[in-house]
Known about the structure:
By secondary structure, the chain is mainly β. It has 2 helices and 21 strands.
Amino acid sequence: xxxxxxxxxxxxxxxxxxxxxxxxxxxxxxxxxxxxxxxxxxxxxxxxxxxxxxxxxxxxxxxxxxxxxxxxxxxxxxxxxxxxxxxxxxxxxxxxxxxxxxxxxxxxxxxxxxxxxxxxxxxxxxxxxxxxxxxxxxxxxxxxxxxxxxxxxxxxxxxxxxxxxxxxxxxxxxxxxxxxxxxxxxxxxxxxxxxxxxxxxxxxxxxxxxxxxxxxxxxxxxxxxxxxxxxxxxxxxxxxxxxxxxxxxxxxxxxxxxxxxxxxxxxxxxxxxxxxxxxxxxxxxxxxxxxxxxxxxxxxxxxxxxxxxxxxxxxxxxxxxxxxxxxxxxxxxxxxxxxxxxxxxxxxxxxxxxxxx
Length: 357
């Protein structure tokens, strides 16, 4: 496995200019996967023991953390992250926190799945970040309360052992556990602030729920679909095309750079399972001067199978949801959308049912 670059210690004090100029980060091998803790998938921070300086909900905001040097409130500096108060020891003779003292937050993943990597981002927390962090995971059916998650009946599995982290840095950790998790517990030792938490992995849906639904979107990220590859990710990631809901702005979709050749762009997907597709949607919401001109959709049934077209090359309209009922159901494990010549789409929906396989 690729070595994960790590960071420790304080960052330099902010001295003006671009606050990200001295931000420490690295190319982590897992960040191309879905963020299971994305609020757009329904993730949430359900509880925290302390959020005196900055609210726990900031941990899962999809945008990168911002820094406003002059922004203060009645509690102190307002930070774009989760920040707890300073811990103190038991007495004047020992004013320092004990070794095991820590703050915690409980995170409900937006989509249950196998975690492949975690990023604990301390952007803009330069001297007020935690000394170390740890992350645990559990799988609990239904929608447990914080009290239920913290009860002795719940078993937690360590995903990231207690590890030193750095300030103003993307602290990345590879995870090798193959279990399916629904919730995480993030601990920071002894206190401090964390800007963002990203949990990269593969969605493992509740198949009983999907079978009960019958017909559903078999390529949707929340149902276990995923992007395998794409020809271009210049302006926005291809995974946006299978996120929940309609796009709310232009960059909430997939847009490619302008082609100056005779080629075209494409995305390849793996479906939630082998499915019989009966209808599809291609949405170009908010893409008004840069939507794809034409699109086609192809599928294949098995890794080694040949691609076959289920939607021929069709003219697309800007800022429009296009719906198509197939003349006959199409069995498939993979799908591909081809756009001509370039531009973008915001969503692809493939409606069908799981087969016996």
